[in-house]
Write a structure and sequence with these properties.
The complex is a heterodimer. Chain A is mainly α. Chain A has helices spanning 7-12, 17-41, 58-64, 67-99, 103-114, 121-131, 138-146, 148-159, 176-185, 193-203, 208-216, 221-250, 253-259, 272-282, 286-310, and strands at residues 3-4, 44-46, 52-54. Chain A is built from 15 helices and 3 strands. By secondary structure, chain B is an all-alpha fold. Chain B contains 12 helices and 1 strand; from the N terminus they run H-H-H-E-H-H-H-H-H-H-H-H-H. The chains are: A mainly alpha, B mainly alpha. Strand 1 of chain A pairs parallel with strand 1 of chain B, so a sheet runs across the interface.
Chain lengths: 315, 283
């Protein structure tokens, strides 16, 4: 803990305030000022220039009736569910690595996990976009080769989706119905190296004797996961859950790169963040974009509050 | 060793290989993008369509893909290195000073200031992006690399302060008192006590900051207009927008974008793996 100081000492040490000044100045200018400005401008019709017109709550009324925005909220809720599911492989992998007997292998796997991080995130995205390519893409090759394509076509006949056909390459990012599935498949098998390392660090605190005791009680591998391992990494899991939900909620980089600034065919990949970006930088409606930002902010704030109240993260 | 015990150990051994198998299959799919990037970068489109999976014969490698990519992407790499290195150094320098203020003494108002920083971790950055754009325009920082650096430095403050403060608080008090006795100023105390004592966490934070700036494309996308100033993020987006795609050239460009990270990881892999494992327990 920091020391409490006497009055005299404070007077003597006033120069210390200079130490926090750079951080503070930066944050005030580039975080607080824009935030205040966003609140202010959400009441204006403003196209980014010097002229603006006060229109009261019109931007918010418009947002409230904006079908695109509500659809975007639906899409982003689906994406959040996807991402929750995508957390599972990382947890499983961490547990698998942790259960290995050999320490050398454990270390080797940790290093191997980090290797894919040398590919910049943006490049990974583009490579996935390339995987999705209907004619050249790896994904369609794999589906053809393993016969899964035939299975998909069969299912299509059965359920009448009208999406998969024989002899027609699957247009993952071109068909409205396939946009959400593509956003789900993206990044398979969804291992986050940083996440796995953090879970592993949490698992490290389990002593061997805990396992031996569990074995004596006749608890199987699945039981061990739920009784021993999961509780120990629960605080890390919750933390990454929170961060993930917030990041998904405001994210739009993925959609922007894979699908373009209008959310792809049929706008099926439109998220609130992307719609805000679109309104501001494509349509030039900065005031309305600020209002969308406010709506988003309120949603995230509510999520954070709920999260802090009901999902406690113990230190 | 009794027969029963060796049996038990033996059965464990046998039981481990399915785990290895599963882990390896995960890893292989995870490494697939890297593999595809490497092997496609040596092919032209025709060869790639004919043989998408296996690497081409090394005698027929198309090095001209790499030459093309180098010419195209190296200026972007240089810009990005400049942004990421300057940004990382500035971000941590500013954050260390601030963290020292919070960690060492309880000055009047420091509680309030601390919450002002911590609230930022909850604020969604996205609502800010439109006013940030017009602010940078007014400061005539649009279309400069400095804008990216300064915004990233500001954006990284809350998180870095949060981590660094707890590390500085854990440095033994005696060290600071000894330094004070010797008449060291606060700056000298930071240089001779704080920096050496928190070097491992500073390393991990630098890598995270560097990676963050290296991978960023949303900020550069709205800030940069001139082709000469493009960072990798924007440069690669424009490359993706071309109509006729020479996949070999594109993959070679992607590879160039990864080379500095490969170098970085070669030297810091251990530090990174260790730092993340420790930092996680602390945070």
């Amino acid at each position: 803990m920091s020391l409490s100081l006497s009055r005299q000492k404070i007077r003597q040490e006033w120069r210390l305030y200079f130490f926090v000044l750079p951080s503070l100045a930066l944050v005030l200018t580039f975080a607080y000022y824009p935030a205040a400005s966003a609140v202010y401008h959400s009441f204006f019709e403003w196209s980014g220039g010097y002229t603006k017109q006060l229109i009261g709550f019109d931007n918010f009324t418009r947002a409230f009736h904006d079908q695109v925005l509500w659809d975007a909220f639906k899409t982003v809720s689906v994406l959040i569910v996807f991402n929750l599911f995508k957390m599972i492989p990382s947890i499983l992998l961490a547990v698998l690595i942790h259960r290995l007997r050999s320490d050398q292998w454990q270390y080797a796997y940790r290093v191997l996990l980090v290797v894919p991080m040398i590919v910049p995130g943006l490049v990974t995205l583009f490579i996935w976009k390339f995987f999705f390519d209907p004619n050249l893409g790896v994904l369609n090759h794999v589906l053809d080769f393993t016969g899964l394509k035939a299975a998909l076509v069969g299912l299509d006949h059965f359920f009448n989706w009208g999406v998969f056909f024989d002899n027609v390459p699957i247009g993952w990012l071109a068909q409205p119905e396939l946009i959400l599935p593509s956003l789900f498949i993206w990044g398979f098998p969804w291992i986050g190296a940083v996440g796995v390392l953090i879970y592993l660090a949490g698992l490290q605190s389990i002593g061997q004797e805990v396992y031996e005791a569990a074995e004596l009680d006749g608890i199987g591998p699945i039981g061990k996961f739920f009784y021993i391992e999961l509780p120990l990494i629960l605080s890390q899991v919750r933390l990454s859950l929170t961060l993930l939900i917030i990041a998904t909620f405001q994210g739009y980089g993925l959609q922007l790169l894979l699908l373009g600034d209008s959310g792809g065919p049929g706008g099926r990949g439109m998220t609130p963040g992307l719609w805000m970006y679109n309104r501001a930088f494509i349509a030039g409606e900065f005031g309305y974009a600020c209002a969308i930002g406010m709506v988003l902010f309120v949603f995230i704030l509510v999520l954070t509050v709920i999260n802090n109240r009901y999902v406690r993260v113990e230190k | 060793m009794s027969a029963a015990l060796s049996d038990a150990v033996g059965s464990r051994r046998r039981k481990d290989w399915p785990k290895h198998l599963i882990i390896w299959s995960f890893l292989c799919i995870e490494l697939l993008p890297l593999y595809m990037m490497a092997q496609v970068s040596f092919k032209n489109n025709a060869e790639f369509i004919q043989n998408p999976w296996l690497p081409a014969n090394p005698l027929h490698w198309h090095w001209e893909n790499w030459a093309f990519a180098a010419k195209l992407i190296l200026p972007y790499v240089a810009n990005t290195v400049f942004v990421a290195v300057t940004g990382t150094v500035a971000m941590l320098a500013v954050a260390v000073l601030g963290a020292y203020f919070f960690a060492r003494y309880k000055m009047p108002g420091s509680g309030l200031l601390w919450s002002a920083f911590m609230v930022l971790m909850l604020l969604p950055g996205i609502a800010n992006i439109v006013p940030l754009f017009s602010l940078l325009k007014e400061m005539s920082l649009l279309n400069t690399l400095y804008a990216i650096i300064i915004v990233s430095v500001a954006g990284g403050q809350a998180f870095n302060l949060f981590v660094l403060r707890s590390f500085i608080e854990d440095i033994p008090k005696d060290l600071f008192e000894a330094a004070e006795m010797d008449g060291a100023s606060h700056l000298q105390r930071i240089f001779h006590v704080v920096l050496p004592m928190s070097s491992s966490i500073l390393g991990t934070l630098s890598i995270l900051a560097f990676l963050g700036m290296w991978n960023d494309f949303l900020l550069p996308l709205i800030i940069l207009r001139d082709k000469e100033l493009f960072t990798l993020g924007v440069g690669l987006i424009y490359l993706d927008g071309e109509y006729v795609k020479q996949w070999g050239q594109i993959m070679a460009s992607y590879f160039f974008a990864a080379i500095p990270l490969i170098v970085l990881f070669l030297f810091t892999m251990r530090l990174f793996v260790r730092g993340l494992s420790q930092g996680a327990i602390k945070g």
